[in-house]
Amino acid sequence: MIKVNQLNVDGRTPLGIKVDLPDSPPLLLVLGETGFVMCGFLNMDAAEKLNVTAAMVSGVKDFNDILKAEVKAVTSEASKKGIRPGMTGKDAIKLLF
Length: 97
Hints:
Order of helices and strands: EEEEHEHEHH
Helix content: 10-25%
Number of strands: 6
Mean pLDDT: 97
Number of helices: 4
Strand content: 15-25%
Distance between the termini: 28 Å
CATH superfamily: Hypothetical protein YunC
CATH class: Alpha Beta
Number of domains: 1
CATH topology: Hypothetical protein Ta1206 fold
Low-confidence stretches: none
């Protein structure tokens, strides 16, 4: 099942996408206006090669987990926006607007 939710992050409205997978944790993605925060299922090397603004968190099962999770990796474009490993997903998402 695919779920799409409009989230509220300090007055900003990112779009959350959750794909439930069989016998697996879900695939999660939160889209801002200029980039996204993704779960560990998605490939950081590919995101870097494609020159997109992306941050990766891991060990998440829902959108609230993404907001609380520590950013583990970022692309060069995300770094330019001030997104850094160690910040929360919520703080990263706020920088994508």
